[in-house]
């Protein structure tokens, strides 16, 4: 067993290094922040970086994985734990996930603390690159402070039409909040399976989402998981 005296030094990572490490897996660093005492992060965390799929690259990687093909439950969660956990281990950091708990980590709050992910008019998270297709697969808690990209304003500020507010075919998601049961009932009964096969109509209505390049197969995978 290695003692504290002969432990190898913590790898000297930075934002670009993280980007390079994540890219072969179709992932990217979504944003980060410097935690304070009340942010519910592991002890000694200096920088918390959220990890997201880079959709055009992500789906071919995940859909070719053993987890996707083995028929066992929760393939994406198991894949995320393996891939992000390995990268965190290589960096002598801690991997955190939104699907493990209790205690549950406050990923929605963490996302907003990055300054690059914001609340949209319908309440879901929105990002200037992904629009309403924001998806967070995990986080890496680094024991050193690294330089972070500048915050990016929400794209909603310059979106005049705000089609997300009226896109839901049954009004389950809008300015008044999210009616989960109404949403799930529609997905299960729609004879055209529009949302089930191509993804949430509200997410797709976002002009930024339309340019992100998410595979319809990926959206269908997530919708079927949501539907159970």
Summary keywords:
two-stranded antiparallel ribbon; alpha+beta; globular; disordered N terminus; 228 residues; four-stranded antiparallel β-sheet
What is this structure's SSE topology?
Elements: H1 15-22, E1 27-33, E2 47-53, H2 55-63, H3 66-69, H4 75-90, E3 94-96, H5 107-113, E4 117-119, E5 125-127, E6 138-142, E7 173-174, E8 177-178, H6 180-189, H7 194-198, H8 201-205, H9 207-210, H10 216-227
Antiparallel strand pairs: 1-2, 2-6, 3-6, 4-5, 7-8
Tell me what you see in this structure.
The chain has 228 residues and is an alpha+beta fold. The chain has ten helices and eight strands. It has helices spanning 15-22, 55-63, 66-69, 75-90, 107-113, 180-189, 194-198, 201-205, 207-210, 216-227; strands spanning 27-33, 47-53, 94-96, 117-119, 125-127, 138-142, 173-174, 177-178. The strands form three sheets. Strands 1-2-6-3 form a four-stranded antiparallel beta sheet, with helices on both faces. A two-stranded antiparallel sheet has the order 4-5. A two-stranded antiparallel sheet has the order 7-8.
């Amino acid at each position: 067993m290695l003692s504290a005296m002969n432990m190898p030094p913590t790898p000297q990572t930075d934002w670009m290094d993280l980007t390079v490490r994540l890219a072969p897996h179709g992932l990217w660093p979504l944003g980060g922040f410097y935690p304070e005492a009340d942010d519910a992060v592991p002890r000694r965390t200096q920088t918390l970086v959220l990890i997201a799929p880079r959709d055009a690259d992500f789906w071919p990687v995940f859909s070719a994985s053993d987890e996707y093909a083995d028929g066992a439950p929760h393939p994406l969660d198991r894949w995320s734990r393996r891939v992000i956990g390995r990268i965190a281990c290589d960096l002598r950091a801690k991997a955190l996930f939104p699907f493990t708990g209790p205690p549950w980590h406050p990923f929605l709050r963490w996302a907003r603390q990055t300054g690059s992910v914001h609340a949209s008019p319908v309440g879901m998270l929105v990002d200037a690159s992904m629009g309403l297709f924001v998806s967070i697969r995990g986080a890496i808690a680094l024991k050193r402070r690294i330089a972070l990209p500048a915050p990016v304003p929400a794209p909603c500020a310059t979106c005049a039409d705000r089609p997300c507010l009226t896109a839901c075919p049954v009004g389950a998601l809008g300015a008044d909040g999210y009616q989960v049961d109404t949403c799930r009932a529609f997905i299960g009964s729609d004879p055209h399976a529009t949302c089930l096969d191509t993804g949430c109509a509200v997410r797709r209505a976002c002009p930024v989402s339309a340019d992100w390049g998410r595979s319809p197969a990926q959206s269908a995978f997530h919708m079927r998981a949501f539907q159970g």
